[in-house]
Design a protein that fits this description.
Elements: H1 2-16, H2 29-63, H3 68-88, H4 92-104, H5 111-134, H6 145-169, H7 174-185, H8 189-200, H9 206-229, H10 231-245
Helix pairs in contact: 1-2, 2-3, 2-4, 3-4, 6-7, 6-9, 7-9, 8-9
């Protein structure tokens, strides 16, 4: 959550530069205000917002038998959260993301309802969005090997290396620490969302967007294979840890 808050706040600041007609009109005050309102929005969502959503989910579970009622609540609150953050100056995706965190942590969200929501998002909304992202640019014309390799290297070194280092610092075995890094390396869908927004705001070129999309596909598809290859060694690490504790 902290990672995404920082990321979306920085993105909002960067994208706001595109709205400046003249460098001389730049002032710090609007950015400070935007950051303050964003933090207030997050705090409100994690406190009062969580309480309200818990009450709404409990009411729906008592009065409606089908998960469709909860799906309607999720879509409605996500749209409201997106509208609020869009008004702040942060992209609407962040508001919907915060709503998902709040609703996902509610004990009133049943397993059946979670599976129904996941089915709608995974099988309909996500493919539709990523298909629209793919249609936004010509991948063949804008493909650049140097940019792709630069982005892919930065992503893998940053995610795998950073998580490996932190995991080792907590005392985890080497193989398990590497597995943590590889698992984190599978994160890629957010990068495509960021890239699409940046492309629309003319912050990055089409070649950079293509590189981000390829990076997301490569890291997401390779992580599962690499973890399966490490399965036997991970079991041995787990046995060593258990023996060490006993």
């Amino acid at each position: 959550v902290v990672d995404d808050i920082v990321g979306w706040t920085i993105a909002g600041i960067v994208f706001s530069f595109d709205k400046l007609e003249d460098v001389g009109t730049f002032t710090v005050t609007p950015m400070v205000t935007m950051i303050g309102i964003t933090l207030a929005f997050v705090g409100l969502m994690l406190t009062a917002g969580r309480w309200v959503c818990n009450k709404l989910l409990a009411f729906i579970n008592r009065n409606f038998a089908k998960p469709s009622a909860v799906i309607g609540l999720v879509i409605g609150t996500a749209a409201l959260g997106a509208s609020l953050t869009q008004g702040i100056g942060i992209h609407g995706f962040f508001g919907a993301f915060m709503v998902g965190i709040v609703l996902g942590s509610s004990p009133h969200l049943t397993k059946e309802t979670r599976e129904s929501i996941d089915g709608v998002v995974t099988n309909f909304m996500a493919p539709l969005y990523f298909a629209s992202a793919g249609l936004a640019v010509n991948f063949i014309t804008n493909f650049s090997w140097p940019i792709v390799m630069m982005v892919l290297t930065a992503a893998c070194v940053g995610k795998i290396g950073g998580c490996y280092t932190c995991a080792r610092a907590t005392g985890m075995p080497g193989t398990s620490s590497l597995a943590v890094g590889i698992a984190m390396n599978s994160r890629g869908s957010i990068e495509i969302v960021f890239g699409m927004i940046a492309l629309q705001a003319h912050v990055i070129t089409e070649s950079m967007f293509v590189a981000l999309a390829i990076m997301a596909l490569v890291t997401s598809s390779s992580s599962g294979f690499l973890l399966r290859c490490m399965a036997d060694r991970l079991r041995k690490d787990e046995l060593i840890c258990i023996e060490g504790r006993t």
